[in-house]
From TrEMBL:
Ligand binding (ATP): Q9, P10, T11, G18, N19, G147, E148, D149, I186, K195, M196, S197, K198, S199
Gene name of the encoded protein: trpS
Keyword Nucleotidyltransferase included in the entry's annotation: no
GO cellular component: cytosol
Superkingdom to which the source organism belongs: Bacteria
Protein's UniProt name: Tryptophan--tRNA ligase
Cited Gene3D superfamilies: HUPs (3.40.50.620), Tyrosyl-Transfer RNA Synthetase (1.10.240.10)
Family: Belongs to the class-I aminoacyl-tRNA synthetase family.
Chain residues that bind L-tryptophan: D135
Alphabetized Pfam families for the sequence: tRNA-synt_1b
GO terms assigned for molecular function: ATP binding; tryptophan-tRNA ligase activity
Length: 330
């Protein structure tokens, strides 16, 4: 079975619709046919300041959401990144292989650092994609299910794997991004030119917020001139984004939805999408609450996941250390 790995940050507590449709939905589908490793990447979360209590809680909330959305811990290894020390260890190795200029070309760093004052931009935010490369390479990962925004980081990962292999002999599998075109980028409801992102809460739909609030956000989504419900990313990016979300949540094809809404306005589409989302998210929220009701059990699931992850990660790290020339402990 081909190996997949992906991670999600616990920074916001709730995932947003972009995280779910762009990434987590594929995680759930892939676990059927792949050897899957999924992690809550708390090491990545501290690239911006976190309150310790909130971070700890948000890691559980993130794991609970993954379970509630369909990750099956019997099939997938579900774990917290900091429970597997090999991530930080291989991360250091990868940092030593990365060029300064190469890291500086990462557009996500440019975007994220631009939103903060220079004194607040930690070096960790800069080296974040390098740690991400280690996350992936530790598992000899074949496919990495992510949203479009991660494509550049995946390219860096591939470059680092190839560089290491060339210098020290074949050690890592060179992974591929697994990006589902239709939902690769979910856009901000208030600014359909930008990706939906937790940094811009106004145009984001959160899985754990009151669905009434989500429905309201959907009703007030920025749409376009005209009134016809047609998928056209250039002329109608706002409406197209709503159709993408609608189609993904219902499994109904976009042309079918267009036909359904022919002669009706944007208002109907938005109102119905609010209902579709509410129907989807209500049972998810109930399951999240149930998992969070029993944190000891949740922690046990995560401990088992970390154990499975370490079995693989420790072998890869040992091999990499040996190749590099580190003296093996007696
Ligand atoms: N808008 C999106 N459309 C499709 N996929 C998306 N992802 C994020 N936003 C979208 C995918 O979600 C996965 C987990 O993301 P993350 O934990 O790395 O979070 P992030 O990218 O930091 O999330 P945000 O909201 O995009 O945060 P900021 O504002 O910090 O940039 C990834 O696979 C990602 O591609």
């Amino acid at each position: 079975r081909p190996r997949v790995l992906s991670g999600i940050q616990p920074t916001a507590g709730s995932f947003h619709l972009g995280n779910y449709l762009g990434a987590v939905r594929q995680w759930v589908a892939l676990q059927e046919s792949h050897d899957a490793f999924y992690c809550v990447v708390d090491l990545h979360a501290i690239t911006v300041e976190q309150d310790p209590k909130t971070l700890r809680q948000n890691s559980r909330v993130s794991a609970a959401q993954l379970l509630a959305l369909g990750i099956d811990p019997e099939r997938s290894a579900l774990f917290v990144q900091s429970h597997v020390p090999e991530h930080a260890q291989l991360g250091w190795v990868m940092q030593c292989l990365t060029g300064f200029g190469e890291a500086g070309r990462m557009t996500q760093f440019k975007d994220k650092s631009a939103r903060q004052t220079a004194d607040h931009v930690g070096v960790g935010l800069f080296t974040y994609p390098i740690l991400q490369a280690a996350d992936i390479l530790l598992y000899q990962t074949q496919f990495v299910p992510v949203g479009e925004d991660q494509r550049q980081h995946l390219e860096l990962t591939r470059d680092l794997a190839q560089r290491f292999n060339k210098r020290y002999g074949k050690t890592f599998r060179v992974p591929e991004a697994y990006i589902v075109k239709d939902t690769a980028k979910i856009y901000d409801l208030q600014d359909p030119a930008a990706k939906m992102s937790k940094s811009v809460p106004a145009g984001m739909v959160e899985l754990l917020e009151d669905p009434k609030r989500s429905a309201k956000k959907i009703r007030s989504a920025v749409t376009d001139a005209g009134r016809e419900v047609v998928f056209d990313v250039v002329e109608k990016p706002g409406v197209s984004n709503l159709l993408t979300i609608y189609s993904a949540l219902t499994g109904r094809a976009v042309p079918e939805l267009e036909a359904d809404y022919a002669g009706r306005g944007y208002g109907d589409l938005k109102k119905d999408l609010g209902e579709v989302f509410t129907e989807f998210v209500t049972p998810v929220q109930a399951r999240v609450a149930a998992y969070l009701d029993d944190p000891a059990e949740l922690d046990k699931v995560l401990a088992r996941g970390a154990e499975r992850a370490r079995e693989v990660a420790s072998v890869t790290l040992a091999r990499a250390y040996e190749r590099i020339g580190f003296l093996a402990p007696a």
